[in-house]
Amino acid sequence: MTEPRWLNADERRAWLALLSINTLLPAALDTQLQAAGKLSLFDYNVLAMLSEAEGRFLPMSELAARTSASLSRLSHVVTKLQRRGWVEREAHPGDARVTVAHLTEAGMDTIVSLAPGHVDAVRALMLDAMTDEDVADLARIGEKIVARLDDDHWILRER
Amino acid sequence: MTEPRWLNADERRAWLALLSINTLLPAALDTQLQAAGKLSLFDYNVLAMLSEAEGRFLPMSELAARTSASLSRLSHVVTKLQRRGWVEREAHPGDARVTVAHLTEAGMDTIVSLAPGHVDAVRALMLDAMTDEDVADLARIGEKIVARLDDDHWILRER
DNA sequence: TTGTTTTACTTGAAGCTTCAACTAAGACAA
DNA sequence: TTGTCTTAGTTGAAGCTTCAAGTAAAACAA
After folding, report:
1. What pLDDT shows up at residue A158?
2. Confidence (pTM)
3. For residues B125 and B69, is the Cβ–Cβ distance under 8 A?
4. Using the beta-carbon criterion (under 8 Å), do A25 and B149 form an inter-chain contact?
């Protein structure tokens, strides 16, 4: 067994910053969305991913991939969103194992009304702190990390 | 009411990457720590922050700041860590409102035994994906975002 | 075709986090 | 000193996430 390599100064700074962002950023966005529409950041993302999909529907697995969530977590959340009238579950015509989640009109209205405030919050909490070059760097470095965590993650598909 | 400014390509890439990292990285580290010692990343960080503090103790408020957590969350977790014999609660001599969390010997042994595996995981999941320059850039940009989220966050203190 | 494995998803229980309410002590003000 | 405000922390309940187990259909194998 060899000695582990401890983190150097920059590695430690990068790691601690990421860890802090990780806790603070979702919490702040949750607060904004909770106030605006009584939903969480994760709820919002589920609706957002459906709203951007062709036909406003996606199989549960694909929706789970696009929200980086487990199927179990997604299933519970879709049940909740269904009770609120924002999403419906439908059978897949070609494969009976598949459940398709479909954004309703009410769900679409909800996300359309929430999007401006949410985007403003993302800018205020994160993007406004950075120069254009910082944003490009973060995009590039962030995608490297995502590739390391999941080498066929959906956000890397169009590259 | 003005039109919101939507995200441009790089902004969207940066935001989606951060959101994905945010879900995937803690999940992967949780899995490693759960397997190695049946604790979460947050539990680990609480122990780590105490182990690095002078005297291996900190007031609850300070520990909450260093783990970016609410006092409520920390209080529940310290109760759990206390039941496992890793932390003790003590009264503060000068101010009776303050509770001091103190890492026990058993707690120190735990973190010492877990640290190498955890650091290896942080490297494997994140740092190994980046060049030295990337790491320095991420540290710089990450700290800008942290400053935006909380302008006197503890990781910015030594600057 | 029959049995086996894999894929897609759901469910209930256990554990974790948040929220609101609460206690208690220190600081401040008159 | 007395009352008020602020700070520090705890608690229980509600809601969210994970985990393990289960169902059912599709794919594969002999």
Report:
1. 73
2. 0.94
3. no
4. yes
